[in-house]
Structure formats: structure tokens, C-alpha cells
Design goal:
Blueprint (H helix, E strand, L loop, with lengths): L1 E6 L4 H12 L4 E7 L4 E6 L5 H10 L3 E2 L1
Antiparallel strand pairs: 1-3, 1-4, 2-3
Length: 65
Amino acid sequence: MKTVKIKGMSCQHCVKSVTKALSEIAGIHDVKVDLERGEATFDEVQPVDQELLREHIKKAGFELG
């Protein structure tokens, strides 16, 4: 299980957007986003480049923290 901080989330719509963005990345499964903590946890079945994570989060309108 890997955890990343996400900046800019403020509502459940944000949670859904981040969940969708991370779920679209090959090798990432079981995404859970915690609005109160401002973080996302997921399983990596293969190594995922940090820059790829950053790009997907940015496209969703947020930033890696």
C-alpha cells in the first residue's frame, strides 16, 4: 500500500476526481482517497513513476503534496 498527499481537495467531487485519475494509471489498484487527511492510498502491482502520478493528479485539477 502506497500513500501520497493530495493538495486542493475540498469535497466529495474532488475525492471522485482523484480516485478516477489514479485508477486510470496502469499498475494502480484499490484506490482510496481520504478527504480529511488530504491523501490517497493505493496498491501498486508494478512500479509507477512519480511523474506519471503527478501528471494524472494535475489533469484532475490537484497537486501532489
